[in-house]
Amino acid sequence: MISTPVALLVLLSALMHATWNYGLKASPDRLLDTVGMTLAGSLLAACALPFVPLPAPASLPWMGLTVIIHIGYFAALVATYRHADLSIAYPLMRGMAPLLVAAVAPLLGDALSPGLLAGVVLIALGIMLPAWLGVMRGTVSKVGVGFACANAVIIAMYTLSDGTGVRLSGSALSYTLWLYFFNAWAILAIAWRRRGRAVISHLRRRWKMALVGALLSIGSYGIVLWAMTVASIPAIAALRETSVIFAALLGTALLKETMGRWRIAGALLVALGAASIRWG
Fold first, then answer.
1. What is the average pLDDT score of the chain?
2. pLDDT above 70 (res 259)
3. How far apart, in whole angstroms, are the C-alpha atoms of residue 25 and residue 140?
4. Are 6 and 227 in contact, with CB atoms under 8 Å apart?
5. Which of 43, 161, 167, 220 could bond 16 through an S-S bridge, CB–CB 3.0 to 4.6 Å?
6. Contact, 75 vs 204, CB < 8 A?
7. Rounded distance, CA 260 to CA 262, Å?
8. Can you give the pLDDT at residue 104?
9. What is the DSSP string of 113-179?
10. Could you tell me which residue, 106 or 221, shows the higher pLDDT?
11. Which of 74, 11, 75 minimizes the C-alpha distance to 241?
12. Which of 265, 268, 166, 277 is nearest to 225 (CA)?
């Protein structure tokens, strides 16, 4: 069972995560806005690092692994949103990942009770149902789906890596800040190689958006990493993916994407899954 305060904080994290993903989908230049957000996150983390302890050495290999995985994550995220709607791509990415995490987590000593397992499966099915129906009917880009599925694997990888690392770190806050400090630099180097000085001019125009995105991203992932130190990694990963409900609403209301009855049915499955995790 996940306590009510932890569950509510993870749901807040879900809202924050969906919001910054909406901002990226709506962006006029997703690659450079990704750079701006990660760079702002790195600078914010640098300001706070003098006031937190160093993470335990045992967590550092996991942090390093996540930094490498995140390069692929952001690259796949930009490509996914180039080819697919937020309300389709986001559910696929976030829905498949908890199932993958749940499948591997027992190998790391994090077994699920029947109630928690049922919650993970219900959330994943509810998240993926509308997207897969769209694929079967030919209304969704197969290229976008391919990138979304690839990113689901990447999300599962960094979830397991960070879930293990943060438990070894001795401080969820310290682990989060150091992770965000290192996150930006490889992505910045890739963007600079592709776009050159356009990176600087874009950051000057969009620094406020970058700052808001960074605050949402750090806050969202920091909550999740802390929650993984007090509850099951697969359960937290699945509950956090209720963010798809928020993403569907944002996509419908602000991006004018359609939300039919199958997306409503999927949202109901997600709600049932969240309840199962809360009391499972």
1. 83
2. no
3. 16
4. yes
5. 220
6. no
7. 6
8. 74
9. -HHHHHHHHHHHHHHHHHHHHHHHTT-S-HHHHHHHHHHHHHHHHHHHHHHHHHHHHS-HHHHHHHH
10. 221
11. 11
12. 166
**DSSP assigned state of 85:** -
Sign of the torsion formed by the C-alpha atoms of 163, 89, 124 and 246? positive
Size of the chain in residues: 280
Pull the structure tokens for residue 161.
């890596």
CB 54 within 8 A of CB 204: no
| Alpha-helical segments (H) within the chain | 4-25, 30-48, 60-83, 86-104, 114-136, 142-169, 172-195, 198-228, 233-240, 243-253, 261-279
- CA-based R_g, the chain, Å: 18
Tell me how far apart the alpha carbons of residues 50 and 174 are, in angstroms, rounded to a whole number.
Answer: 10
